[in-house]
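Protein modeling request. Please complete all fields; requests missing the sequence field cannot be processed.
Requester role: graduate student
Desired output: 3D structure, token encoding
Chains: 1
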Amino acid sequence: MKASDMIHQAANASYNEGLALAKLHDLSGAIVSLSMALRYDKRHTQARNLLGLVYFEYGEPVLAMREWVISKNFQPDGNRADHYLREMQKGGTLEKLDSAAKKFNQGLDYARSGNLDLAKIQLKRVLSSNPRMIRARQLLALIYIERGQYADAKKELDQANKIDAGNEITKTYLQEVTAALAESEKKKKKRNEVDVIDIVDGNDVVRMPRQTFVEAMDNSKSGILNILLGTGLGVLVAIFLIVPTVRQKANDDTASALINANAQAQTSQSDIADLNEDIEKLQKKLDKYEGKADIKNSYELLLQAQGALSEGDPVAAAGYMEQINKKLLSKEGKALYETIQADVLVKQMELDYAEGVKAMEDQDFETAVKKLKAVVEQEETYADGDALYRLAESYVKLEKPEAAIKYYRKVQEAYPGRYIGRKSKTKADALEATLETTTETTEDE
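Delivered output (445 residues):
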């Protein structure tokens, strides 16, 4: 059997294993298996599409989109990834999920800084937008555990476990919560146990509670004491149950207001900072990013740029690249962006150089200067200095000796020991002498 066949079989086996685990809601296990399938064969479209679905089910839409875009790159036609990407754009789904991700990061920051109330409120907002986000449920459960609210923690972890039955972090938290709840129940039962005594009446045994000091008192005294105890108990219930509940609600309302106030304050500070910016600098920044694409369109444009480049159209590729919002790309996407950008520059220089040479042959020296200057601005020594030399020659034809001398000297400095360098020196010296003679004649006149 060929090595390629063995690799293909291994990829299919890992894909089938991932599919089986996904059906069992073991998303963590499915991610491992499908990632292994793609290690064997990165072009395994079915595995990549399924991995995207698993990530989406896991509550990680950005990771899902990355897999679908890569899948579409490998198989542009008849790819199910097209459908998934279109669905993500419907009804503001992508914006909603992106907002949830930002809120999760803010909630995580609150938790790290010890503001657990703010973190809890923020995480609840996250789950209202993206209820399948495992990380948010785990973090919220962790906050409940820290507060000793094990029942609430168990609810969140049970929900997380329904989504991903194979998540080890969820299992670990559930074990701790279950143990804490069992211990709490044990203590509760122990407190509720009543001390009893057995009284033998003939052949019968009567089990009765052991009388306390209060119960041993006569009815009148016991009744008065019970009234006093009832009144005191009512006060205690108000102090320890009702008041804390009201206070907790007030705290939650205050914390929620604080989050909104912080967001507004940050917006205000940002606005003030923007107003204090240099107007010209701000305008350049706006011009640079105006019309940039969103996440999905950025990946689409990246693929279109790559296609245009492979078809030998660097101009179209450059146009696509200008519209891409690089900041929205993943690490792998940015690496692909840099590769394509470098290739676009190389192809563009080749095209400009060829058009510059053709323009010189056609006696169109204005166009020649434009094209050759674009080349030397990117790489002065392009074509072993020929681009620089031709640029100088074009300026001579346009009767611009100062510019011609400038570029002749650059060739001379770059290639002092070669023919092109010596030739450029001779021409630059001759032009300078001519300019000096012209200047002297003018002065004499």
